[in-house]
Structure formats: structure tokens, C-alpha cells
Design a protein that fits this description.
By secondary structure, the protein is an alpha/beta fold. The protein is built from 7 helices and 13 strands. The longest helix has 18 residues. The radius of gyration is 21 Å and the shape is globular.
């Protein structure tokens, strides 16, 4: 893989205490909550944190209190930053986020850094930053998701024009983006082998799964517009002796539209460390995704 062309680093004010041989900080702009689901960003950034300071800037939370950044330190010393401020027009919101971010950079002496984007919408408040390099890790075609901002495609073009390197979460997405930038690389997600190998060992069932009869057909992941709910409904009706176990949060769809049957069991979100114990009790693992705009470019981690 060809290394990105690096621009000279700059800062919001000089800091002579920063040595040129220190690894640059990684400042990540993401639409995903760090504590939501442990997935690609968490896997990559916890590895980055072995050598770099890592700051994860999440999307803002609407809050009636004074504008501020809530900062907490997670595993491996990763700083998770949540902007909080009252609702306001998008232009004012972007200006406020930019102002808060400048103050945060000064406070934490972030002067030599890489910007690592998961959402193009973050361009609206990071245009004036001067990073050493810009990485666009394109996990999904976000513009195809339900509720995507109307400006998503425009912001992505702006990000592609600025990025030094672009990674895509799968081959189909690579084919879609490879003519949009001179340095695009297919970077599909892999498997945490040691972690999920635990699911092949016999072990006690989690309490909320122990009562479910076999055979069990299971799914873990986010339940959203990508899931073929009609397929689940028809499968449960056709084979009432099969039990469908759905592990994960319900997002962006009304829970009332989920199919309900005696042999469909929604167990809700689980911690990453808990997943192998659920898998160990399944007879078959499912990937019941629909064929629609939201799934056209995905490369589910569960497939390998």
C-alpha cells in the first residue's frame, strides 16, 4: 500500500514542547457512538492507541446546558469527546463545533495530528484544521441509509478532494469509490479470531438464552433497515420448531414493525465480550439482510 503524501503539520499556536519524532495524534470524526457497538473503528483505533494519542469526536448531543465538550477516557487511553449544546441551525451548529474543537486542541496541545474521518458531514466544522494527513475510512455508503443528510454526497466530494488516502469497507464499495480518488484501497473488515473462537467451545448458556429450545438460528448485530424483516416473519411461520435468536440494538426503525412470534427471541444489545457465549449456543448463524439500497455496498464483518 502506497503511503499517503503528508502535509507539514500545523497547529492552533506553536508548542515547542512537541518533539518531531513523537507519533502524531489521531483525531477521529465519527457518526458512531464509541459505546454503541464494538466494531471496525474500535478495533482499529484501540490498535492505534498503542503508539498514538487517539481522540474520538462523536456527533453532538442536543442539550439545554451551556455549549461544551464532555470528555471521558476509555480503554487504552482513548479520549471520547461528545459535543453538547442547544439545538440551532446547521450553519450555527457547525461554527460552534469548530469553536469548541479549537479550544479542545489548545487545551490538549494537539498540534501534530492526523484527521481520520468516518463521516463526511464532519467536514462542516473541520475545514480550517491543518492536519499532517487526512484519512477517509469509508465503512458504508452512508448516503443510502435511512435519514441520511441531504448534503452527504456534497460533503463526501469535499472530503475526497482533501483526503490523502481512502479506505473502503469492502470490495463493492471500493469499486464504487476507486475512480473518485487517486489513492483508494479496499480494506475489508476481518475477524477477531481469538475472541470468536471461544464460541466453538462448549460453555454455559447466558441466562436470557438458556430457556430457548433448539434448533437455534442466531444473528448478532444492529437491527435496522438492512434486515429483511419479512424473511424473518416467513421463516418463523414456516418452521415454528426453529427458534430465531436476534442479538443487538434496534436502530432507526420502529420496534413495533419487528415480526413477533413465539419462536422469535429479541435479546437486545450485548457487550462485545459476551458475544461468543451466545454464539456457542446456536446451531446456525444467520445473516438475514435485505437486498436494498442500504445493503448494496456493505461487506458484513460476519461473512468471513
Amino acid at each position: 500500500m502506497a503511503p499517503p503524501t503528508l502535509r507539514p503539520s500545523a497547529s492552533f499556536g506553536s508548542d515547542t514542547s512537541i518533539q518531531v519524532h513523537q507519533p502524531p495524534d489521531i483525531v477521529t470524526l465519527t457518526h458512531l457512538r464509541w459505546d454503541f457497538v464494538f466494531q471496525r473503528p474500535q478495533h482499529l483505533l484501540t490498535r492505534c492507541a498503542r503508539r498514538h494519542r487517539v481522540f474520538v469526536i462523536e456527533e453532538p448531543v442536543i442539550d439545554d446546558g451551556p455549549p461544551r465538550l464532555d470528555v471521558s477516557v476509555r480503554q487504552h487511553g482513548i479520549h471520547v469527546v461528545v459535543p453538547r449544546f442547544p439545538a440551532r441551525p446547521s450553519g450555527e451548529s457547525a461554527a460552534l463545533q469548530a469553536q469548541l474543537l479549537r479550544g479542545f486542541f489548545r487545551e490538549h496541545r494537539i498540534a501534530d495530528y492526523v484527521l481520520w474521518y468516518y463521516t463526511p458531514m464532519a467536514m462542516e466544522f473541520t475545514r480550517d484544521l491543518t492536519p499532517r494527513a487526512v484519512v477517509y475510512d469509508c465503512m458504508d455508503e452512508l448516503s443510502a441509509f435511512a435519514g441520511a443528510p441531504a448534503a452527504m454526497r456534497e460533503r463526501e466530494q469535499e472530503l475526497l478532494a482533501r483526503a490523502d488516502v481512502v479506505f473502503t469497507g469492502g470490495q463493492t464499495l471500493y469499486e464504487s469509490k476507486r475512480h473518485s480518488h487517486p489513492n483508494v484501497h479496499a480494506f475489508p473488515s476481518s475477524v477477531d479470531i481469538d475472541h470468536f473462537a471461544r464460541g466453538r467451545a462448549k460453555q454455559p448458556d447466558p441466562d436470557d438464552q438458556a430457556h430457548i429450545p433448539h434448533p437455534r438460528l442466531g444473528f448478532f448485530g444492529v437491527v435496522d433497515e438492512r434486515m429483511d424483516l419479512d424473511l424473518l416473519r416467513r421463516l418463523a411461520a414456516a418452521r415454528p420448531d426453529w427458534h430465531l435468536v436476534i442479538v443487538g440494538p434496534v436502530v432507526k426503525i420502529d420496534p413495533s414493525v419487528l415480526p413477533v412470534a413465539a419462536n422469535i427471541h429479541y435479546l437486545g444489545p450485548k457487550q462485545y465480550d459476551e458475544l461468543p457465549s451466545y454464539l456457542a449456543g446456536w446451531d446456525v448463524a444467520l445473516l438475514p439482510f435485505a437486498r436494498n439500497d442500504a445493503t448494496r455496498f456493505i461487506s458484513p464483518t460476519r461473512t468471513p
